[in-house]
Specification:
elongated; 13% strand; 2 domains; 404 residues; Muramoyl-pentapeptide Carboxypeptidase, domain 1; 8-stranded mixed sheet; 3-stranded antiparallel sheet; 9 helices; 15 strands; alpha/beta
Length: 404
Amino acid sequence: MDNYPSEGIKADPLPDDKAEGDSAETETWDDNGPTSRKAVAMIEHVVMAQLADRLRDAGVPVEQIWELDASYDHSGNGNMWKTNEQMVKGIGQSESGYFWTDINDMHYRFGGRPSGHMLHHTASTAYTPYVKNSRGQTKMNVMAGLRRGNRMYQSGGGIPTLAMCSAGPSDYSAGQGVRDILESYLSVGLRFVGKQLAPDDYPRWYGNRYYWSTEVVLNGVGAVIDLDLRDLLIVYCAAVSDMLGENENFHFGHGQGTGRKIDLFDGRYTDMAATIFTMQDAIAVLLVPPIEPPIEPPIEPPIEPTPPGDLVQIGRNQQYIRQGETGQDVEFWQVRCIEAIEGVKFYGNSNKQFILAEAPQLKWKVWDQAMTDWLSAWTRRNSYGIGATERIMVENAVDALYQS
């Protein structure tokens, strides 16, 4: 997917005396070259500003997408996540001039796009997201955590949320690192496996203008990512890949970009590398078109009207089902789980009869503890409903059943 303008602006080489997080440029640029540092009209980034809409299209509930407005620009200059630009001195933004930059070191302002997605953790248990800090700097593109009010947490309850902070590159996020991962892996869609062992490049090279950065609220010392939040991260990464036309290897860890870091590290895995490749594998499953079951001859309509809740009348757009819920969406997943777990294809025209016959321990249209225990025994995880992981496992098993 090519979202670049026809021409870009060549980046300046980075001076040796720049500290991590600083830009290579010392003057402001626009699409035609250097300009005076003056205020410009707020313009949306045409590529990454689509992300919130694409997440909603992917089925992420609206309450889990937090689009930061001008009240979260602590520089006081009215930047919002879609219009956040690091270029103009004197109105709160960085004076250095940060633009999306491609592998050929060409700058693209509002028409640019990132060349990779770096996953970080905050090394804290709570964080308040922002568009810009009081110095006019941007730290992250997206923050992921459990939202309670206007703050994001590692644990303790809350809504699993993606805070949209900036559609443009961040002043200090990816930082100093090894450029080879961009050139030898990301640009060709290959997976970088393991921890980065090479020293950071010298003269210094920074990934800030090249990488989309996501900060996960996690203390980084063996802490475990909330399972619902992890499911949301996987759907989010798949949406980014789909939007940019990239595979699962587009997403990588901060510790793979520089040997100085160990994030993103989910404590349920042995190390950062295992955290990343298990996420990449889950993202890949979402990016593969589902196998359509073979078309079967239509079933003759019964003499009596079909009971309410006929499987073919129920939509499949409900991604999240939780214990305690009732209704047709629960009924749909009860039928699908029977097919996956018991290996019995749906027959007849009545979901209720199928459920009572094949899984009599279940209550029709009710997700109770018995349903949770039954599904958890099969998934070998705490499956208190249908999240992204359960959906993938069940649908893969059902697809295999109809292919057999």
